[in-house]
Design a protein that fits this description.
Layout: E1 4-7, E2 12-15, E3 23-28, H1 39-57, E4 61-66, H2 73-82, H3 86-103, H4 119-131, E5 135-138, E6 141-144, H5 160-166, E7 181-186, E8 201-203, H6 205-217, E9 221-227, H7 231-246, E10 251-257, E11 261-262, E12 265-266, H8 277-283, H9 286-294, E13 303-304, H10 306-331, H11 341-359, H12 364-384, H13 389-405, H14 415-428, H15 437-453, H16 457-470, E14 472-477, E15 480-485
Parallel strand pairs: 3-4, 3-9, 9-10, 11-13
Antiparallel strand pairs: 1-2, 5-6, 6-7, 7-8, 11-12, 14-15
Helix pairs in contact: 2-3, 4-6, 4-7, 6-7, 9-10, 10-12, 10-13, 11-12, 11-13, 14-15, 15-16
The structure holds one RNA strand.
RNA sequence: GGGCGGGUAACAAAGUGGCUAUGUGGCGGACUGCAGAUCCGCAUACGCGGGUUCAAAUCCCGCCCCGCCCUCCA
């Protein structure tokens, strides 16, 4: 099966062919670290985490680089305001932001190069740009001359003349063309600065990505990504710089993810509606937030709102239930009632359809739809106990394998916490505590079973409610009471 | 003003020139002390107006509306 990726450069889905067979090199624009990571960051980095997971699933060896912008106007402003050294300030937030993403269950990239640690490489690239005639020095600053780069505007589909017309850019005497952008900024008091052939200063924003991506991945590399908002000017400028300096093609596939809104509004500082990851996970579990994002296609803009998250939570529960049911079924040593070839072919079919969806520009909502269709089939077979435990295991392993691509099933069970609560409950009902949680639960259910036999409904219902509270779902069936852990 | 992307049932969200998307919610049924889960079935769609076609929500044209970018931004 062929993987197709929607390439912003061509605005088409293209067959994916890596530069080097069996390997994928991807670079995603990372965070500017001056405050906590927010759910917009989460949306983007989760999307690329899943892209990376799927590429790995397809057998590619993926090298994933994400930069850290730790030298920047906003960082300097924020740090100076608090009287902290800007580099210390950004160092603090680098750790914090990465931990925020950890907390959400987003896998870390392979490399996190920092702007402040790659200044020399940036200077070299700027020198090459100057040597090749694409830039100029102006009073300690260095600028890129957009008119010299004939391809300028190709990614964002803009023409230089049109941009000038509607530009809101302040004309600067230092720039020859208002659209020229800074490669190097001369030092101002209170700013971190480095020595350069043009005097003390610091790099412009765009140059770090051109530099670090080519340094870590070589040119051209396969995938470059980021939020939609970065198409212009950031990515446009990155292309100009990298190609002007090296004469090589920069990137083969550009992937841009849709920007998140909150209650249909853009998330921005001015609206004051930025939701930090830290705050979001107080209200919603990480897996719920992840599932919400995965239910949206990466290129469309998801809207973060109460109802949508509740939906995600309910849907997720359904997935956890089959997982638990399959686990139990496998342990119960069932024999096949009839030919289970059909069931096994359904498992295979699910895998194929899932891959088909993911091969189509990483279409996670479609993959989820296939997942739910599969769940219905599994439930049907489980209900009638038609299949052997071995066949169930096949379904189970497939569910886990594919689910993990969508970042499902990665939550560590909060075993100790649950155990404590169960033990408390056991004590209440005079059940002797045992080593295994499962056994304690079984004991408690015996108490409840007795109550039910005596038609002590209040007591029986109370036990059920209490277990539910802990996350244990109770189900009375003809063959007795079953239970499962639901997060 | 220029560029880009959208408008799908109660909500969320895919997709597609004719064949059930999917999940949550709703309704009915099986099951059941109740509840829940599960299964079976049902209902509610494709912004508006034209056109092409045997057939369009899907293609074309026009219109309306929304969002994003053009300034730091994932």
């Amino acid at each position: 099966m062929v993987l197709k990726i929607y390439n912003t450069m061509s605005r088409k889905k293209e067959e994916f062919i890596p530069v080097e067979k069996g390997k994928v090199k991807m670079y995603v624009c990372g965070m500017t670290v001056y405050s906590d990571a927010h759910i917009g960051h989460a949306r983007t980095y989760l999307a690329f985490d899943i892209i990376r997971r799927y590429l790995e699933y397809k057998g590619y060896k993926v090298t994933y680089v994400q930069n850290i912008t730790d030298v920047d106007d906003k960082i300097i402003a924020a740090a100076n305001k608090k009287g902290i050294n800007p580099l210390d300030y950004s160092k603090y937030f680098t750790e914090r932001c990465l931990k925020d993403l950890d907390a959400l269950g987003i896998r870390r990239a392979d490399f996190y190069p920092k702007a402040s640690e790659n200044i020399n490489d940036m200077i070299e690239i700027i020198q090459k740009i100057l040597e090749n005639g694409y830039g100029y020095v102006s009073d300690g600053d260095v600028y890129f001359s957009v008119e010299k780069f004939k391809e300028y505007g190709r990614l964002s589909r803009r023409k230089l003349e049109e941009m000038k017309a509607g530009a809101r850019i302040e004309p600067t005497e230092k720039k020859r063309n208002p659209l020229d952008f800074a490669l190097w900024k001369s030092a101002k008091p209170g700013e971190p600065s480095w020595d350069s052939p043009w005097g003390k200063g610091r790099p412009g924003w765009h140059i770090e990505c051109s530099t670090m991506s080519s340094k870590y991945l070589g040119l051209p590399f396969d995938i470059h990504g980021g939020g939609m908002d970065l198409i212009f000017p950031h990515h446009e400028n990155e292309i100009a710089q990298a190609e002007a300096a090296t004469g090589k093609k920069f990137v083969n596939y550009w992937i841009h993810v849709g920007l998140l809104t909150v209650n249909k509004e853009k998330m921005s500082k001015s609206l004051g509606n930025i939701i930090n990851i830290r705050d979001a996970i107080k209200k919603w579990k990480p897996d719920v937030i992840r599932f919400f994002f995965v239910s949206n296609h990466h290129r469309s803009p998801p809207d973060f709102n109460e109802k949508a998250l509740e939906n995600a939570e309910a849907s997720l529960k359904k997935i956890y239930r089959v997982k638990q049911d399959l686990e139990k079924y496998c342990k119960e040593k069932h024999m096949a009632k009839s030919d289970e070839k059909i069931f096994l072919s359904e498992v295979k079919k699910f895998k194929n359809r899932f891959e088909e969806a993911m091969d189509d520009d990483f279409n996670t909502p479609r993959a989820i739809a296939e997942l739910f269709s599969f769940i219905r089939i599994v439930n049907r077979y489980l209900k009638n106990k038609e299949i052997s435990s071995k066949a169930a295991e096949k379904a189970y392993s497939t569910l886990l394998e594919l689910g993990k691509i969508l970042t499902l099933f990665q939550e560590k069970k909060e075993e100790t916490e649950v155990k404590e609560k169960i033990e408390k409950l056991a004590k209440k009902y005079g059940v002797k505590t045992k080593d295994k949680i499962d056994e304690i639960i079984d004991e408690i259910l015996k108490i409840r079973e007795n109550a039910r036999k005596n038609k002590e409904w209040v007591k029986a219902d109370a036990i059920r409610a209490e277990l539910n509270e802990i996350g244990i779902e109770i189900e009375d069936t003809r063959e007795g009471t079953r239970w499962r852990k639901v997060k």
